[in-house]
Each structure stands twice: as C-alpha cells, then as structure tokens.
C-alpha cells in the first residue's frame, strides 16, 4: 500500500499522470490481485483519455473486488461516453445491487438515468439520496433537474428552496438561471 501512496502522490499532488501510470503498472505487475491498484490505473488511463486501457483495468478491478464503487462508477461513465448506454446501465444496476446505500453509487446511477431520459428512475434515486443525506447539493441539483426535465420549473424551484432552507451551502448559479 505504500507503493499505492506513491502513485497517488504523483497522480493527485504532482498531476503527473505518466509517473502515476508507471508506478501503478509496477504495482499490478508485482501484485496482480491488487484491486485498488487496478482501479487507480483505470482512473489514470481514463484521465489520459485511453478508454480501452481504462476499461481493461477497471474490469480487472471489479473482477477482483466486485464491490469497488470507484471502479464501477468510472467504468459506467466510460460506457456512457462511448454511447454504450446498455452496458453503462448494467454496470450501475450491478453497483446498486452490491452497494444499495452507497451515496456515490446512487448519485452516479441517478445521473445516468437523468442523462438517458429515464426520468422516473432518476427521480427515485435522487429522492433516496436526499433521504440519506439532506445536505447533499449534488442530489438536490439532480432532483431539481428531474423537474426541469418534466417541464415543471415550479417544482424545481421548490426543491431548491427546500434545500436552501435547511442548508447554508449555495447551489451553483446555473440551476437558478433555469428556474
């Protein structure tokens, strides 16, 4: 895990994707069952816009640790960017089954559903996220976006007002401009 810290140092502190990739490739070569290293390597490849390599690493991570939230979310995002909605949906559904209370999984799946026009599914998941964490601004924005997608700006405004009534955190201005 010390070597993983070195790779993370290059990745997050130095913003050196090449060094991070080199360190992570050494780790997975020496420790081929290190799921977190495969997840991190997949994230590096994703940041380098190497989707095929990222998918291989992320799938290996999920093979080793099916409960890896970060691997599932990143893999789902790659599929979505590639226009592979069915594959993305399967990854998010699987992640929801494995981690039904994990807020990051709930929000990633909700965003997927919203972006693919599955508004009712998105609404259900954003509601679940807000019940779990009423102060989550991403969930509040997504929930408001659901109502905007349904051509109901009044309800979208209500969602934002309810959120702001119990939170001091301001939501991004772009949501206010549309409601």
Please provide a brief summary of the model.
The protein has 179 residues and is mostly helical. Helix content is 78%, strand content 0%.
- The proportion of residues in beta strands is under 5%
Order of helices and strands: HHHHHHHHHHH
- Find the structural class using helix and strand composition: mainly alpha
Round the mean pLDDT to the nearest integer and report it.
Answer: 89
Question: What characteristic shape results from the CA principal axes?
Answer: elongated
Helix content: over 70%
Q: Say how many strands there are.
A: 0
The unreliable regions are none
Q: How many separate helices?
A: 11
Instruction: Calculate Rg over CA atoms.
Output: 18 Å
Largest sheet: none
Tell me the span between the first and last alpha carbons: 47 Å
């Amino acid at each position: 895990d010390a070597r993983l810290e070195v790779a993370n140092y290059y990745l997050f502190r130095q913003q050196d994707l090449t060094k991070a990739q080199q360190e992570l490739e050494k780790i997975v070569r020496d420790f081929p069952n290190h799921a977190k290293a495969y997840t991190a390597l997949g994230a590096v490849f994703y940041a380098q816009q190497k989707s095929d390599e990222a998918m291989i690493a992320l799938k290996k991570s999920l093979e080793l640790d099916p409960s890896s939230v970060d691997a599932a979310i990143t893999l789902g995002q790659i599929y979505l960017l590639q226009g592979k909605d069915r594959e993305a949906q399967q990854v998010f559904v699987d992640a929801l089954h494995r981690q039904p209370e994990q807020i990051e999984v709930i929000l990633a799946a909700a965003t997927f559903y919203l972006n693919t026009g599955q508004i009712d599914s998105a609404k259900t998941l954003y509601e679940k996220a807000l019940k779990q964490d009423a102060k989550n601004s991403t969930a509040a924005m997504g929930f408001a976006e659901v109502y905007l997608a349904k051509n109901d700006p009044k309800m979208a405004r209500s969602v934002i007002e309810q959120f702001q009534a119990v939170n001091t955190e301001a939501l991004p201005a772009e949501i206010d401009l549309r409601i």
